Amino acid sequence: MRGTLIHAPRDIRFGDRPDPKIVEPTDAVVRIAATCVCGTDLWPYRGANPITEPAPIGHEYVGHVEAVGSEVANLRPGQFVIGSFFASDNTCPICHAGYQTSCPNRQVMTGCQSEYVRVPLADGTLVATPDEPDAAMIPDLLTLSDVMGTGWYAAVAADVKPGMTVAVVGDGAVGLCAVLAARELGAAQVIAMSRHTPRQKLAIEFGAADIVTERGDEGVERVKELTDGLGADAVLECVGTDESMHQAVRSARPGGNVSFVGVPHGVNLPITELFYSHLGLRGGPAPVRAFLPELIDRVWHGTISPGKVFDLTLPLDQVAEGYRAMDERRAIKVLLQP
Amino acid sequence: MRGTLIHAPRDIRFGDRPDPKIVEPTDAVVRIAATCVCGTDLWPYRGANPITEPAPIGHEYVGHVEAVGSEVANLRPGQFVIGSFFASDNTCPICHAGYQTSCPNRQVMTGCQSEYVRVPLADGTLVATPDEPDAAMIPDLLTLSDVMGTGWYAAVAADVKPGMTVAVVGDGAVGLCAVLAARELGAAQVIAMSRHTPRQKLAIEFGAADIVTERGDEGVERVKELTDGLGADAVLECVGTDESMHQAVRSARPGGNVSFVGVPHGVNLPITELFYSHLGLRGGPAPVRAFLPELIDRVWHGTISPGKVFDLTLPLDQVAEGYRAMDERRAIKVLLQP
Which residues of A touch B (CB under 8 A)? Predict the structure, then answer.
């Protein structure tokens, strides 16, 4: 098959790779229908993580089951499936509690920017759509593999409830999906912090009532002005930097909630501020698997269209251009078609 | 009147002080029936906070209303009342959300280790008992002013629900009250981390099923052994040091909750560990006021007897000996009688 390797920062190559095979009897092999480039992929692309040897990359995928191992009970070849960026057994107490990305048997998915991918723990990891989806629905379904599930988790982890005021820090695809999630969960007012016109427009389309372009002290002041001087009931931090985390903590009302769903890079949590403001905090790699049935249902019935975050579609063999477009913020999110 | 001043670390003096008076029309003056020494008082006593001049000290109190200002509507002289260590208006949105210790109008209470004390925002701060309590009930009621309310908040902030496994880090009076609170809120199993025999006994009397004497890695392992290898659903951190916070974070199951109710001293939150374990975190100075009606009711009907944390009672003029007994861990908690 053909697939993507990252050789070094800013060195993405597409070429021949070994065909994935069933290794464990609980595996499936999926023929990728669509994959994409994630904000998380930009960390190694920009040199934030060491790359010691050429490595497969990509962790978002939808596609058709090509083959299943002998112990896979709930999937059959030909089904259209969506999986998360962590494989998980979905049978242990941690999975049952809804934290599949903390499953003791979890396995990191990678190499999804390829024509085929091996998915471990297939019964636990993959969820099939009710039927073969229309081509137009594939971008929506693809977001459920990560960004929409992560935005949803951001809202769930900050305990967004009907009537709440919600601020979203970060206008990447996850932040935009978090706006949509907060509205779907009943937020009365969603404030999107964004400086980029196309992203502001999409935030408004996804249900944001207010756009805050300021950052730092001024950004905090603007959020407070928009929330009766108190700060937002829930703040969804969708970046992962120290600056964005402090922005989030300071924008929440006393006793409010802050969620954080971007992998933390150099974040120092202000413990004294957290203590005296009674903030609730929960983060983590989103347990996307927990939300797949519900989110597939919402996409299937046309309730949400998170696929609008894709503003550039390329053939998979142009994956390197996809990374460049994301890195240079020419695209919010790039969909890749094998 | 006579009252307590802290002059310097380990220098507690009892002597003549000005009589508290009504200053604002929303004030009350309370004649103290009982007060006590708090773990928090030991921080300045041990030199952790600078003391620039002799300062009144003590923030826990029950007693009789002596006088009220012209705008106090809900209290009358002679009533037996309990207040929190923060005065709060109890009318703003933050108070209504149950975070009275983040009230924008909050005022820190101090000088309660005295014969009388001025209480600002009396209508918002003080809660009267249904009638004059028996003398035997006064220790129980006194704990509601801080330690029992703080233990209760520890359990509430960690979202303790019926059937949960709960671990409590810290065997001071707050930790012991947290054991009692977790049981009252329906925890199926409470694990108390304690090395001191009298405290272990009280923890068991308050409902702990297991005592863990180990700390560090061994303590974490013991908690996991007692919770099917997963860690506790909720961990209540009742100390405030870096060591105890890390103990708490590592003792919780993935996706569990950690509360922290001791003022943090030198705590560095492990952000990456919090992220990858999906822990929920909430702390803060306990909004004791929120719990007073419910806790007074439980004490009044004999459901709980948190006053058992007092294992030494002294006349108020021996307050300095009370501090010594607490500092040397000869007493769990010292009650002082004017």
Answer: 93-94, 97-99, 101-102, 157, 228, 230, 253-255, 260, 263-264, 267-269, 271-272, 274-285, 287
Residues in B touching A230 (Cβ below 8 Å): 93-94
- C-alpha span between B251 and B212 (Å, rounded): 12
Chain B interface, mutation test: which of A239, A275, A291, most B Cβ atoms within 10 Å? A275
B260 closest CA partner among B246, B239, B291: B239
ipTM of this model?
0.94
> Is the Cβ–Cβ distance between A233 and A257 less than 8 Å?
yes
- Spatial contact of B252 and B220, defined as CB atoms under 8 Å apart: no
What stretches of B80-205 show up as alpha helix (H) in DSSP? Answer: 93-96, 122-125, 138-143, 147-157, 173-184, 197-205
Cβ atoms of B69 and B22 within 8 Å: the answer is yes
Alpha-carbon span B101 to B85, nearest angstrom: 9
- Measure B172 CA to nearest chain A CA, in Å: 19
Q: What is the pLDDT along chain A (338 residues), one digit of tens a residue?
A: 999 999 999 999 999 999 999 999 999 999 999 999 998 899 999 998 889 999 999 999 999 999 999 999 999 999 999 999 999 999 999 999 999 999 999 999 999 999 999 999 999 999 999 999 999 999 999 999 999 999 999 999 999 999 999 999 999 999 999 999 999 999 999 999 999 999 999 999 999 999 999 999 999 999 999 999 999 999 999 999 999 999 999 999 999 999 999 999 999 999 999 999 999 999 999 999 999 999 999 999 999 999 999 999 999 999 999 999 999 999 999 999 99
B287·A268 Cβ contact <8 A:
no
Check: pTM over 0.90? Answer yes or no: yes
**Closest-CA distance of chain A to residue B67, Å:** 31
